[in-house]
Amino acid sequence: MNTQPVRAAVSGQRTRPRILIVGGGYVGMYTAMRLLKKLRFEEAQVTVVDPRSYMTYQPFLPEAAGGAVSPRHVVVPLRRVLRGAEIITARVTSVNHAARTAVIQPLEGEAYSLKYDQLVMAMGSISRTLPIPGLAECATGFKTVEEAIQLRNRVLECLDIAESTHEARIRTRNLNFVVVGGGYAGVEALAELEDLARYATRYYPTITPEDMQFTLVEASNRILPEVGPEMGMWTLEQLRKRGIDVKLETRLESCVGGHIELSDGSKFEAETLVWTAGVKASSIVNNTDLPLNEHGKLSADAALRVKGVEDAWGAGDGTSVPDLTSEEGLDCAPNAQHAVRQSKVLAGNIIASMRGFPVKNYKHKYVGSVAGLGLHKGVANVYGIRVRGWPAWFMHRTYHVSRVPTLNRKIRVIADWTLGLLFKREIVSLWSMHEPFNEFQDAAKPAKLQTPPAA
Predict the structure, then answer these.
(1) CB burial class (10 A; 0-12, 13-18, 19+) of residue 298?
(2) Residue 18 CA, distance from chain mean position
(3) Phi and psi based region of residue 332 (left: phi greater than 0; alpha: psi -120 to 50; beta: remaining)
(4) Taking all residues of the chain, what is their mean pLDDT, rounded to a whole number?
(5) pLDDT digits over 113-147, tens only?
(6) Distant-in-sequence, close-in-space partners of 39: CB < 8 Å, separation ≥ 6
(7) 452 or 143: which carries more pLDDT confidence?
(8) φ and ψ at 73, to 5 degrees?
(9) How far is CA 228 from CA 101, 183, 380, in A?
(10) What is the pLDDT of residue 66?
(11) Contact (Cβ atoms closer than 8 angstroms) between residue 224 and residue 371
(12) 235 pLDDT more than 60
């Protein structure tokens, strides 16, 4: 494959050392921001490669799905915030660190090789799925803003279908909503969507909140382990008071054609199935010559260097980083709290390494967690202080608006919340946006000739 013309077109004549950052999520974007701020121009060229041209602030995905925040306000354009960096909207398909080369697959066209001097693996994680019949065809994940938009539109579209049909089976199927996974993503997504659907039923004369069935399926014996047993139990009670069927120690066994079968013997049909049962490292790590741990994650030391490898660094969900504050010798939890702080240390260590100074270890004691459970409802465990209800919901919003990147996005999110207090919630489904060309294609088809009726 002749890669030189493509590489020259993308990168130009390269004279500065290149720091290649694989991934534009929390770690990738924040690391690039700090490198651009601290490095002199001639010291390095910062290159960020990601198949999306924006960073997604994932803690706001449930609110985006529920309609409290505009989906465009939970994403940050990389080209706007990383002025001075080289942004390549593409996928890194493999890395040969011994040769300091990465293979880039652009959105269109042939793959090409890209040379680098320092490597940062910040590719994050993807949904961890199981070989369950029908899962790939019927379920949706909840890790991207596109999935949040799709899920909101799907729930409201299901209400439209249930309102308009006279067939009991179709109505029941569209009023059943299933979420698999009782961690943060699953509980928050379920709570926000149930809150939205319950509100929307006031505009549907033939649908009541009691007609809908929300089911949370969790394989372990508790939900929200991040907030502790006591707050997890309180959350469980609150969800059940809202009519949500929480099935603990239960697994999804099949969902072919929307026919749900659970390990407790339950069988029913549901049009909406959301899979949030864990994550795993991006598959990119399997196509590198870098060391992995037993869980398939990139193996790094406390200074965020890939173990035993020069000029390679890693952090975030896809990297195993030892938690120096853990007495049990655990790794850092895969969450935004660690990712944002790791990126600061990571950028500093890259600069120190390039300038010949000693690097620092990453050490951060987990301060706790906050979770939203719908409008004015939440749960929190911060510094051992347990809070629930409206105060926890307020803490959830305050903390995350302080963490969402850029002043621009902070103001837009606050504006969304303010407008939500002053006006009624939007309950419009734009499901047709997922198949935007159907209407035009139907209109463009040749008209069928009408056969005149027989005399």
Answers:
(1) buried
(2) 28
(3) beta
(4) 90
(5) 999 999 999 998 888 889 999 999 999 999 999 99
(6) 46, 351
(7) 143
(8) -90, -5
(9) 44, 12, 9
(10) 92
(11) yes
(12) yes
At residue 1, the pLDDT reads: 41
Other CB atoms within a 10 A radius of the CB of residue 420 amount to 16
Q: What is the pLDDT of residue 167?
A: 96
Structure-token match 């911060």, residue found: 382
Single pTM value for the model: 0.88
CA atoms within 13 A on the CB side of 105: 7
CA distance 317 to 328: 20
Structure tokens at 127: 């949904």
Q: HEC string of the chain?
A: CCCHHHHHHHHCCCCCCEEEEECCCHHHHHHHHHHHHHCCHHHCEEEEEECCCEEECHHHHHHHHHCCCCHHHHEEEHHHHCCCCEEEEEEEEEEEHHHCEEEEEECCCCCEEEECCEEEECCCEEECCCCCCCHHHHCECCCCHHHHHHHHHHHHHHHHHHHHCCCHHHHHHHCEEEEECCCHHHHHHHHHHHHHHHHHHHHCCCCCHHHCEEEEECCCCCCCHHHCHHHHHHHHHHHHHCCCEEECCCCEEECHHHEEEECCCCEEECCEEEECCCEEECHHHHHECCCECCCCCEEECCCCEECCCCCEEECCCCEECECCCCCCCCECCCCHHHHHHHHHHHHHHHHHHHHCCCCCCCCCCCCEEEEECCCCCEEEEECCEEEECHHHHHHHHHHHHHHCCCHHHHHHHHHHHHHHHHCCCCCCCCHHHHCCCHHHHHHHCCCCCCCCCCC
Q: Which residue has the tokens 């005399």?
A: 455
| Token pair 């890693």 in the structure block, residue | 314
